[in-house]
Amino acid sequence: MNYPVDLKYSKSHEWVKMDGDVAVIGISDFAQNALGDVVFVNLPQDGDSVSAGESFGDVESVKTVSDLISPVSGTICQVNEALLDAPEKLNQDAYGAWIMKVKNLDGEEELLDAAAYEAFCAQEG
Amino acid sequence: MSELKRTQLYDIHIQAGASMVDFGGWEMPIQYPTGIVAEHLYTRHACSLFDVSHMGRLLIEGPERVKFLQHVLTSNVTALDLNQAQYCIIPDENGNAVDDAYLYRFEEDRFLLVVNAANIDKDLSHLMKIVKDYDCTIKNISADYASIAVQGPNSREILTTLSGGEAVTEPMKNALNTLEMEGRTVRVSKTGYTGEPLGYEVFIESGEAAWLWGRLIELGAKPAGLGARDTLRMEAGLPLYGHEMGTAPDGSAIPIFAVSLAKFAVSFSEQKGDYIGRKPLERQYAAFKRIMSRNFTDLDVLPRRIQPITLLDRGVMREGMPVYRGEELIGWVTSGTMVPYYRHEGEGLATRILDDTVKRAIGNAYIASDVLEDDLVEVDVRGKRLKAVIPPYHMRVDAPPFARPIVYKPDEEETVADAGNLEPRALELIQKASENHRWRQESCINLIPSENSASRAVRLLCACDPAFRYAEHKKIKSFYDKDIFYYQGTKFIDQVEQLLVEQMKQYLGCSEVETRVISGQMSNMAAFSALMDWKNRLDRKHTPKRLGYVLNNHIIKGGHLSAQPMGALHDYIAVDPVTERSAVVNFPVCKDNIYKIDVEETKKVIEKYRPELIIFGKSMVLYREPIAAIRKFVDDQNIPTTIMYDMAHVLGLVGDHFQKPFEEGAELVTGSTHKTFFGPQRGVIGVNYKKSELKYGLWETIETRAFPGSVSNHHLGTQLGLLMAAYEMNTFKDQYQKAVIENAKYFARCLKAQGLDVAGDPGIDYTETHQVIVPVGYGSGPEVAERLEQNNIIVNYQATPDEEGFTASGALRMGVSEMTRFGFGKEAFEQLAELMADCILRSKNVSEDVKKLRANYAEMHYCFDDREMEEALEGLLKQIGL
Description:
The complex is a heterodimer.
Chain A: E1 8-9, E2 14-19, E3 22-27, H1 29-35, E4 38-42, E5 49-50, E6 55-61, E7 65-69, E8 74-79, H2 82-85, H3 89-92, E9 100-103, H4 114-124
Antiparallel strand pairs in A: 1-2, 2-3, 3-9, 4-6, 5-8, 6-7, 8-9
Chain B: H1 10-15, E1 19-23, E2 26-31, H2 36-45, E3 48-51, E4 56-61, H3 65-72, E5 84-91, E6 97-107, E7 110-115, H4 120-131, E8 137-140, E9 145-151, H5 155-162, E10 176-181, E11 184-189, E12 199-205, H6 209-218, E13 222-223, H7 226-235, E14 246-247, E15 253-254, H8 262-265, H9 278-292, E16 304-311, E17 322-325, E18 328-345, E19 352-368, E20 376-381, E21 384-389, E22 395-396, E23 404-405, H10 423-443, E24 445-446, H11 456-462, E25 473-476, E26 482-485, H12 491-508, E27 512-514, H13 520-535, E28 550-552, E29 575-576, E30 581-582, E31 584-586, E32 589-590, E33 593-597, H14 599-609, E34 613-616, H15 627-636, E35 642-646, H16 661-664, E36 668-672, E37 683-687, H17 696-706, H18 716-753, E38 771-775, H19 781-790, E39 793-794, E40 796-798, E41 811-815, H20 817-821, H21 826-842, H22 847-855, H23 867-879
Helix pairs in contact in B: 2-7, 11-18, 12-18, 13-17, 14-15, 18-21
């Protein structure tokens, strides 16, 4: 499993990368592996506001559906629409296949660094 | 997960990196590192292995085993022959399912019942309570044997490698076999839960399970987990207990007839007696029939049914999601996900499966019984209403070796274009017909065994005036059986018909002939109709009884379509109340030569079934039919029957070089006049009953079932042509038939020498008929036949007796009669064999060489071709203005 050190992670298995004042958000390698083959992503819309700890969409694998939980609060400024046609990118490249970008940040969940997140995942098994 | 049970293959799954889950108390692989999507796709295009050892295997034995099973299962156990399996349901007193199961009969006196892993304890306690009252036992042998499902288009080849080339099972679904694989005994069943047309389940002793799994992987199969097993069965529309059976999301029990498979799994045969749940199941069946007739006035018994469902909006359906019609809640999704499939391009047989894949959101739903195919509904996907539709199915398996995904498409409205001026089209038709005629007659080498070319005289006569006339006629007893014609202007055709009958009697060697039937299929229909009418002649106050048992050649073993229940026998064959299937039994074939009837085994079948009709004759035919041996047997045993020989394919071979059907003991011969015979396309029926015989009445019935039973107008023009063909045949048959059979044998030898595979016994030069069968590799028949056509060689692709059906054909069926008529002899067939090998084995373009070879043999033989005939035909052409 891969835990890049330049990212922060939520306990609901999203990653956050700061790009200036914009938060780029996706799901972790651990999450995609647990989900199995991702077959569909329900994306939010540009301009929607999101709240930390609340669902902003969901990701469907063959087996199950899982809510996407926003690790930050703010306004969505871009959505990765390529995932609608190629949801398997989340499996192939979890850290390259971002899901949304959020600006006007005004709050975030408790985020872990790579080492802490790896330890957390090991516990979840 | 220490308390979970593990199968014999647990360690192998762990080594392979499988993700394990709790499935009904078993620790089972949900997927391997490849993932569910890849495992699903690999099953569809190659071959996957599924460990199904967790399922319950119960052995039922003892004197009252059948009686017991008839009582606790929905299926008709007496219909289950040795080496057959059947799908069944274990019903409760209310007509609901305790479980669904598969019943296997690998041994004469034992049954194997395989039940769902999660239900085994429940099933056992249910069955144990009942078995106490029967003189038989249930033994749980689940731990003694492992089962592996081997599923997908490559499964057959992989298992055949392990069996050392022996056919794994008969090609039909639900066929079983016990055989050796590399020294181990395995039981194989042509069944599965993926919908694959090629799929097997293999049972092996527990200690050998790991070995078998490993060998299957070495031979190219890949492991697949329960995840793929679920998506595959969902795409195939197969029910899963706990989803489509058992308890619905609202807590109600799902009635058995809510699942359409119940139609096959539930029997109401008298053989079954008053089995568990019979009464409520009869009520469900009555409701089912009403609903299928679109009578929705009473939906109390079956308020909802399981139907396939496809999402039209983007999203994924899951089990339990509500389904709406407008604002009305009509049911729930019972299974749903996204499944992948390979895209395809092209149409029909030329359909090519591509490498790239797409996904679709499909599932099953338990919804109101008045929802019809193509109805639009909505699914509540976590608070969002998504549009969905009820498709007829998600997948079809009638074009093996592949399962074909059917992507929902609404019917398009057809628009009729304005026809405009039709003369250009008329001219185009003439041009195209001319091109086609010259291509088939001058450039092509035609090897289709059911075709021939007619002489110029036959062709011209077919175009004369009678082609547009009527001449209905019937024998009238008051006039001492003189034929009375219903139309004037028919004296000439009357004479032609009498001459034709005389010529055909002479040719067939029999006392009576009917020539009004216009095809071989119609000959058989008229004969079957007459046999049935004759059977009922002494009782006209009841609905006539149909024929049964009938002994024929199985279609997969080369049997003629025109002698099958799906063909001409359809409306005349009875259903056996014991088996609830058509009362047809098939000639056993020799184990070491599947093209040949096994006479000794046939005698046993005749003794057991005492068939009232025995139909010899095939469309894929390499051997003479053993008529004399069977005639002697039924006479010695005093078995009342009618021996019929459907000679459609070999009518032109009647004589010293092949068979003389009536001398050998056939009573009734049917045929078509344009395959090996020289005529235009018609049929003929001959019998050899004397006026003094009881069965002469059958003959008279055949005449009335020909007219007015089958035709009013019997196409007089071709009758004229047929008379000429009969003159030709009766004049030239000895030379023609000898040449045909010698050519077929020589052609077969040449093809073999060129490196092609040739079916049949080399000891007799492979064939005793005009046909030669060349296996070209499983499923390759259509492609090779198309390649040959591009090279001007026309053949039939054909499934051999151990293949699943015509799309899986692995052979070419060829006949030499037409080219023999054009003068082909040894030299020409030797050249042709080389050209065919170049084309088939070396993919060479030989189209020009074929044309050249064909051009050397332009002249028709075995017909009257002297100057006098030529002048007569020229005169005819001028006089009739053609």
